Amino acid sequence: MEFQGEFQENFQTAFNKSLEKLGPFEDNPHLAVAVSGGSDSVSLALLAKTWVRQHIPKGFQNVGTHNLKDEGKTGTLTALIVDHGLRQESAAEAQQVRMLLASHQIPAVILRWTEEKPHNRLQERAREARYRLLTEWCCQHQVLHLLLGHHQDDQRETFQLRRAKKSGILGLSGMSSILETPSVRILRPLLQFPKSRLRRYLTLQNIPFVEDPSNANLKYSRTALRRETMPPQEQERLERKIERYGLRRLQKENEINTAVSECVEVFPEGYGILDRSAYQKLSNKQQRDVLQRCIMTFGVGQYPPRRDSLETVMKNLGMTCTLHGCLILNRQGKIFFVREPQKSECAPLSGKSNTLRWDDRFILSFSPNNSLLKNADDKIHVGPLKEKGWMQIKQTPEGKLLKAFPHAVRLGFPSLWKESRFFHLLMPFSSKFTKKKEYVIYFAPRYPLTRFTFTIV
Hints:
Elements: H1 4-20, E1 30-34, H2 39-54, H3 65-70, E2 76-83, H4 90-102, E3 108-112, H5 122-140, E4 145-147, H6 152-164, H7 169-172, E5 178-180, E6 185-187, H8 195-203, H9 221-226, H10 232-263, E7 264-267, E8 271-274, H11 276-280, H12 284-298, H13 307-315, E9 321-323, E10 326-331, E11 334-339, E12 347-348, E13 355-358, E14 362-366, H14 371-374, E15 380-384, H15 386-393, H16 397-402, H17 407-411, E16 414-418, E17 421-425, E18 439-443
Parallel strand pairs: 1-2, 1-4, 2-3, 4-6
Antiparallel strand pairs: 5-6, 7-8, 8-11, 9-10, 10-11, 12-15, 13-14, 14-18, 15-16, 16-17
Helix pairs in contact: 2-8, 12-13
């Protein structure tokens, strides 16, 4: 029989190995962990706290852990709690989770979804908001690793739900252990552990946890699926099948990356050009995959566009059209993929943070003494240049430089606005306009054009 101490030690060791496989990590890593208060995320936070304290930087392997802590050589952990504000009790529950974490010496930050709540697809929109709040916090605080508490049971449920919807290889491969984004690495170190093991870990230590009431609502497909029992042999068979789909997905992504690299050129100003001659040499399926990548990279759709929509674009390639926030243009025989300027978001600037992710396309970093931020208030925001801004600068040196770009491209350039008045073009594309080094901007789309979104550990 495995005793309490032995179970905890064995589980911690298994977790440490799982997390280490998701590296590399810097010498003094700062990890963020998303915590809802449920058994999954609370277990993850406690396991990650121990890993951080035990993490030994390179060159310090012969130094004791306590000595390293005294020298400030161990890592840092911050828990992130998202309060969606969907129920009256949510604020109090978030504070309760924060207090629980504090009792285990884990600092926590509460992130609130303050936007107006949608009437349709509420769960989906809430999930999107959660990921956005988590990744934005990591970006603003230069945290490279965000840990999520998805476990083995979640993986099986994801496969079953996607199979019921007749998903392809990408969907049936399940969730990836690692997702590399332009600003943060999203890690799922619990995918090999069942929920029962996480609950036992907490129960043996008398650590309380809460569950979101929506998890018991049978109107959601995942909740109903959890009520079903599956024999152990069937579970093992399902897990082997998920792994096989994962291997097929890796092969498919490699093929798509090769095709994309052969026929698409990416520009730091946030647009791409398709080489039609190289594109026409691809198979019909490869052409569709390349178009999907371009539209997701230069637009900002949360999910891939529908297959029938992609095929309509393929048939009419060369004609101006829009899909998923992406504008597709034919200029002098070249196919341009550009963000729809009118769909670009406006994001408020704040003197509290020097880093901003704008429109899911660019990351802006301002120097601490930046004159543009010195008097920043709620009235100052980043938005696209649009026609109004372009008319103000078209005769300036910046405007003359912008004339080299297609009109749709320059209308989407990031700019500073005060209320409805344009006052500064944020142009990182020529050193001529960044002599003061007051800010740095780089194109970092949510979905990079060539990428490996799936990892098996």
